[in-house]
Amino acid sequence: MSNAHAAREQAANRRVSRALQDSTMHDTDLQPLTPEDAKERYLRALEDDKADGTIRTRDYKLRHFVRWCDEKGIDNLNNLNGRDLEDYKHWRKEDGDLKKTTVRTQMSVIRGFIEYCGRINGVHPQLHEQVILPKLEDGENRSEDTIEADRIQDILGFMEKFEYATRDHVVLLLLWKTGVRTGSLRSLDLEDYHDREPALRLEHRPETDTPLKNKSNGERMVALGEKEAEVLDDFIRHKRQDVTDEHGRKPLITTKNGRIGKVTIRRTTYRYTRPCVVAGGCPHDKDPEDCGAAMNYDKASECPDSVSAHPFRRAAITHHLNNDVPKPMVSDRMDVSPDVIDEHYDAEDEKGKMNRRREYVESI
């Protein structure tokens, strides 16, 4: 964060602090609101706009706030002030032994929650501006858990040769070529594959247990290349288990019990990103026959070089950008905003980004 930005934020906090002092927190417009009632009202208000998984996450984070209020004897949020919120931040950091990035994430939820409480006359309407988020250095808010495009290409080459058109092949291929989230991948039905385009249709269907993260805003068609379509065609003809899920739908990617789950998708990426599987050797000089991560599918995640499904998404977004796909098109295809791409997903280093921009600059 720049010095100028920090100064503006500090000045804003001082203005809000003065406003809160001038307008007592016992404002006659405020109506009594318990922490538990406030939490339930807030979560209910999210139901129209947020996915169930997001609401569950907010619920989990706010339980800590309700617990803190109980410990402090706060049974009416009308009396809450900026000092209380700062005390909660420090308490939560110590209570959960949290890193700065996690504290920032949790306090961002508190800020949104307090803003909502202000709208329903539970706290002073400007109190949310008193929630001070920890300042992060450039790059500190990004996960570095990623996988190089060359490694993915090697894995897919291995799958092409030894695991062609298997379920695992389809999972890894679609994660890489489309960059979809695991929830989106598992949501696909057989009828969502349009073989003539070819393309996949992503649809928000929460009533039958396949919501999209951004609900109806995440619905879209995702184009496939001829190679991906060929693998999918062969998978459907020869390898897909012809089963239905508990809602009577026909999933595109199946297990013997029905629709593939997120855990199974993650286990697949952990399994095939172990170097010993594809390259046949271990960069850590371990004997595969004595390595639990190598010998046991369930322990594949213990390999230092194995990754879950999300790094495939990060790598796919970066790969699209590096191959001159405009950011707005990547944003639409991957269902992620340009700002979030910049902050969390574009894994290219600064020199790589410079070279990517250079081509456009030199063409002017």
UniProtKB/TrEMBL annotation:
It comes from Halarchaeum grantii. InterPro entries: CB, DNA_brk_join_enz, Integrase-like_cat_sf, Integrase_catalytic, Integrase_recombinase_N, Integrase_SAM-like_N, Tyrosine_recombinase_XerCD. This is Integrase. Residues 1-35 are annotated as: Disordered. GO terms for molecular function: DNA binding. Residues 1-12 have a biased composition (Basic and acidic residues). Residues 33-118 form the Core-binding (CB) domain. Keywords: DNA integration, DNA recombination, DNA-binding. SUPFAM superfamilies: DNA breaking-rejoining enzymes (SSF56349). GO terms for biological process: DNA integration; DNA recombination. The keyword DNA-binding applies. Residues 142-358 form the Tyr recombinase domain. It comes from the Archaea.
